[in-house]
Amino acid sequence: MTTISDVARLAEVSVATVSRYLNESGYVGAKSRQSIETAIKELNYVPSEVARSLSTKQSDIIGLIIPDIKNPFFPELARAVEDTAFEYGYTVILCNSDENPTKEKHYLQKLTKKYVAGIILTTILEQESHWKDVKLPIVALDRPIDSDVPTVTTNNQKGAKLATDFLIACGATNLLCISGPEAFVSSQSRVEGFQTASRKKNITTHIIESAYDFDIAEKIIYDYLKNNPSVDGIFACSDASAIGALKAAHRLGIRVPEDMQIVGFDGIQVGNVVTPSLTTVAQNIYQLGQTAAKLLIKQIEGQKLTNESICIDPELIIRETTRKERFE
Amino acid sequence: MTTISDVARLAEVSVATVSRYLNESGYVGAKSRQSIETAIKELNYVPSEVARSLSTKQSDIIGLIIPDIKNPFFPELARAVEDTAFEYGYTVILCNSDENPTKEKHYLQKLTKKYVAGIILTTILEQESHWKDVKLPIVALDRPIDSDVPTVTTNNQKGAKLATDFLIACGATNLLCISGPEAFVSSQSRVEGFQTASRKKNITTHIIESAYDFDIAEKIIYDYLKNNPSVDGIFACSDASAIGALKAAHRLGIRVPEDMQIVGFDGIQVGNVVTPSLTTVAQNIYQLGQTAAKLLIKQIEGQKLTNESICIDPELIIRETTRKERFE
DNA sequence: CAACATTGTGGAACCGGTTACATAGAGGTT
DNA sequence: AACCTCTATGTAACCGGTTCCACAATGTTG
C-alpha cells in the first residue's frame, strides 16, 4: 500500500502539501497540484482512513444499534440508514443489542474505541443512564432517550387513532386492543391512541398484552377469543400480533373480515403476503431511517441540533382484514 | 480520553511495558502488572482501536457484503455473522451491494482503506475479477468466487431433489419449476436437481423463470397457470416465488394443496405465516452465516484455508401446501 | 519604496499505539 | 570467578496521516 509520503516524493513536494491538496485545506499551487495528481494516479494511492482517524479523532463510521435485525421491522430501517450513510460517504457498523443493557454498553464502548462519528440508537427499553455520558453525536430512533438528544419517531398515537377510528367506521363495536410489552413506550402511545379514539363512542373495549411475536400472540389471542367470542374488531399494536390474531381467528373458524376485522401497526412486508392481506397502520420505515441518518450526519458535520426532534406520520393501508363498506 | 502514556505515567512504567501488559506479549513483572492494573482502573483507560490498527495494519472489523438486507433471506444471515463476530470480538460493517459491481468495488476499496480484517461476500452474480486482487481474507457465501477462496454454500441440488421427490411422492405428475434468474448459479443447481429428480419417472415437466420477488412471480405464474391448468405441482426455486405461486393459485381459484401442491426453497420466516403455510426446502441460514464467519476468523487468525469449502445440507419442512397422504 | 497582506511551501510535532533493540540484574553452570 | 540464560524494563523508531508554525516569494497599498 502506498502512502502519502510516496506521493510526496514522486511529486517532489512535501507531505504537508499533499495533505492540503487532499483535504482542500490551505494553499496548493498549480504545478504542485498537477504533479500531485499525476503521482496519485501513477501510484494508485488511496489515503488510509485509519491514519486519518488517529489524527482527527474522527472516522466516517456510523454505529447502528438495533434490537435484532431478524425482527422484520429493522431490515428496511437498516437499509435506509445504510443508503443515506453511503450517499454521504459514511459506513455503517451493525449492532444487535437484543435489548440487553450489557450488550448495549459493550457496543457503546467498542464504538467509542473506534472513534465512530456518531450513533443511531433504537432501544425500546426505558432510558438507560449510560447514554447520557456519551459525548458522541447520537440520534434516537423510535424512542426518546433524553430531551436534548435528537429523536425520530412515528406518531404512534395518531396512528392508533387512525386505526381505531377506521375499525369503528367499518362497523366494529366490540374492540380488542393487543398492546405490546409495557416497557415499550411506543406501545403505550398506541394504546393511548386507541383509548382516546374508542372512549367517546358507544363502544366496548378490552386490552390485552402480548409480545411482538407471531406465535406468542397467536396463543394469547386464541385463548382470549375463545372466551370472548363477541369481539368484532382487533387493533393490534404490531403487525406481528395482528398476524397472530389472524391465525388464531382462522383456527377458531372466525371469518376475517366478515365476523371480525383486524388492523395492525408497522407496515412490514409480511402483512401484504398473508391471506387475507392485512389492513395496517404503516410506519414510514424507510423515511424513519433516512431521517435519522441525515440528522446524525448533520450533527457530525458540525451543527448542534439540541432539541431537534422529528415525528413522522404513519399511514393507514386498507387491505383485506377490514370490510370495504363503511358504516357511520 | 486517556492514553497509554497516561497509564504509563501513573503506573510509573514505560508505555512499552503497558503495551506488553495489554497484549500479553513479552515479560511484565509482578509489581508492574499491579500498578498498571490499578492505573488502568483509576483512569478508566480504554485502548484506542484506531491507533492499534495503524500500527498493526489490522482491525477487528469484518466487512459483510450482501445484495440487500431487505431481502428476507439476509437478516438471519447477517445476524448469524454478527453473533459469531461478536463472540470472537469482531465487529461487522454492513454493505448492501444491490448486486451492482460498481457499488461492490466501491465497498471493497472502502473496506480496504479501513484495514478490515476480512470480508464475507454474498454475490450471486457471475465471478467479478476484481475480487481476485484482494489480498484480504475472504469467504464466499452462497456462491463460489474462485477455487482457492473458501466458500460456504447450501447443497442446492440435493435440496431441489428432495423437494421434487417429495412432490412426486405426494402424487403430483405435472410439474412446474419456477427457476430464478439465469445468472444465479444457485438457481441453476436447483433446476438441475429438479431435472434429475423428475427425469426418470413418468412425469411431465415445465420450467419458467422469474425473479425472486413476490409480485413479479405472482404475475408470471398467474399467466402461466391460466394457460396450463393441468399443472398439479410446483417447485419454486425460492420461497418468494412459491408465495407468488400461492397467491396466483388463490386468484385462479386453484385449491392448494388439493388441486395443486407447492414446495418452495429457502426457509424464510414468511413461509410459516402465509395461509396455507408453505412446504419448503429450508436452508440452514443461521448455520450458513455462522460457518462463514468462523471460517473467516480462522483465516484472519493465521490459518491458511486454501480450498476449504463447506456445503451445508438443507432440510425439507413439510407444512400445508403439500398433501399429507403419500402415494407411491 | 517601505510596510504589509496574500499565496505557496516545508519542517516537525503530534495522534496513540506496537515493537525491535539495548541494557541490566538474578540465578545457574562449569 | 567467568559466562550464559532468563526475566524485566525502557528508549526510540515507526505506522500514515494532520496541522501549527516559520519562512519565502509575490502582489498591494499609501
UniProtKB/TrEMBL annotation, chains A, B:
Record keyword Repressor present: yes
SMART domains from the UniProt entry: HTH_LACI (SM00354)
Pfam families: LacI, Peripla_BP_1
Organism: Ureibacillus sinduriensis BLB-1 = JCM 15800
Protein name: Ribose operon repressor
HTH lacI-type domain location: 2-56
SUPFAM superfamilies assigned: lambda repressor-like DNA-binding domains (SSF47413), Periplasmic binding protein-like I (SSF53822)
Keywords noted in UniProt: DNA-binding, Repressor, Transcription, Transcription regulation
